[in-house]
Amino acid sequence: MHFEMIITVDGPAAAGKGTLSQKLADKYGLAYFDTGMVYRAVGLMMLKQSLDLNDADLAKKMAEQLTFAKMMELSLDKEFRSSVGGQAASIVSSYSSVRSQLLDMQRNFAKNPTFADGTPANGVIYDGRDTGTVICPHANIKFFITASSEVRAKRRYDEFVQKGMNVQLDDVLKDVKARDERDANRKDAPMKPADDAIILDTSDLSIEEVFQKAVAFIEEKLK
Ligand code: DC
């Protein structure tokens, strides 16, 4: 590849964004930024200190203290990927002051894309809710990945079970719906596809089928 490629993959919780992004990152030699991590990190900082998640000012203070290194450290905590961690992230991500505070950390990642070991990457793949609309509106290629809430809940449930977590499918479905509702309806940067995003409904597709469709689209764009 002779130019720096930026790909964005947005969509609701558990739609398969992470899996697709990682596979595309491997194929095209791209550094990967899962932007939900910035909100998960702030949410977890608050949970750990028993701070009130409904306090937007406190959430902003936590966001001010967040560095990339701190986020990576927090990501090792077992609550980071839990349902509780996801809900906390969803709550703090609804505050516009928190979102604007965390904007530069996300955007800066594309300025000098490198892998964890410091070697340069061919570009960046962002995964999140607003990466094609707000974080990187000039991305070369944008995807919006979706699936029915039932399918997404089942996928998330299977992931939790695989990790040995004790969860009920019904609770995971409720959780997915609650997050959709909050993410789609927040005043600031509601989750929606960019005008120039390709929309992929993965409800009836395997991981490999989604990947092949995405690759076909990218190859067409690169021609
Ligand atoms: O993708 P995730 O489940 O790790 O995201 C956690 C929460 O963070 C999600 O409910 C909404 C928020 N989020 C966001 O508002 N914008 C992003 N670009 C990524 C995540």
Description:
- A 5-stranded parallel β-sheet has the order 2-3-1-4-5.
- It is built from 11 helices and 5 strands, in the order E-H-E-H-H-H-H-H-H-E-H-E-H-H-E-H.
- The chain has helices at residues 17-28, 36-48, 56-65, 68-74, 83-92, 96-101, 103-108, 131-135, 149-162, 169-185, 207-222; strands at 5-10, 31-34, 123-128, 141-146, 198-201.
- The model has no long low-confidence stretch (mean pLDDT 93).
- The site of 2'-deoxycytidine-5'-monophosphate (DC) has 15 residues, from helix 2, helix 5 and helix 10.
Furnish the topology, listing elements before pairings.
Layout: E1 5-10, H1 17-28, E2 31-34, H2 36-48, H3 56-65, H4 68-74, H5 83-92, H6 96-101, H7 103-108, E3 123-128, H8 131-135, E4 141-146, H9 149-162, H10 169-185, E5 198-201, H11 207-222
Parallel strand pairs: 1-3, 1-4, 2-3, 4-5
Helix pairs in contact: 1-11, 2-3, 2-4, 2-5, 5-10, 9-10
This protein binds 2'-deoxycytidine-5'-monophosphate.
What would the keywords be for this entry?
single chain; 11 helices; binds 2'-deoxycytidine-5'-monophosphate; 223 residues; alpha/beta; 12% strand
State the major sheet: 5 strands, parallel
Q: Which distinct ligands sit in these coordinates? A: 2'-deoxycytidine-5'-monophosphate
Q: Looking at the structure, what is the overall shape?
A: globular
Beta-strand residue fraction: 5-15%
Rg result: 17 Å
Low-confidence spans: pLDDT under 50, at least 5 residues? none
